[in-house]
Amino acid sequence: xxxxxxxxxxxxxxxxxxxxxxxxxxxxxxxxxxxxxxxxxxxxxxxxxxxxxxxxxxxxxxxxxxxxxxxxxxxxxxxxxxxxxxxxxxxxxxxxxxxxxxxxxxxxxxxxxxxxxxxxxxxxxxxxxxxxxxxxxxxxxxxxxxxxxxxx
Length: 152
Prior knowledge:
CATH architecture of the largest domain: Up-down Bundle
Number of strands: 0
Structural class: mainly alpha
Strand content: under 5%
Mean pLDDT: 81
Largest sheet: none
CATH superfamily of the largest domain: AhpD-like
Number of helices: 8
Order of helices and strands: HHHHHHHH
CATH class of the largest domain: Mainly Alpha
């Protein structure tokens, strides 16, 4: 449910997140939320991590330059058939679906610059959630088939 968070969070943070919806009254959760958000921002994905692009360029110059070039020629391209606003909406939908915090940050800003409205953003979020859950159902069908095929 929380993508990258689930891989890295310590048990205390996991229990806090669980308590957000199940254990504590909302006023208690709201009081503790700032300290937990601060913890996450200090220890996990943060927009300040972009400063490490310089390190990637230093230690993996060719690969990093290739990525930046690829990004410029696809998402940031302005002379393609797909308009910039649509490109940003596509990129943001993918970022939401893959749960890439950095990508969400970059593409929310790009979408806003491209003229995306808050109504479009809200609808995009719902569409992305539907696609993500649809993929779960599709993989569920695969699991059902594999279970049925496994005779052992």
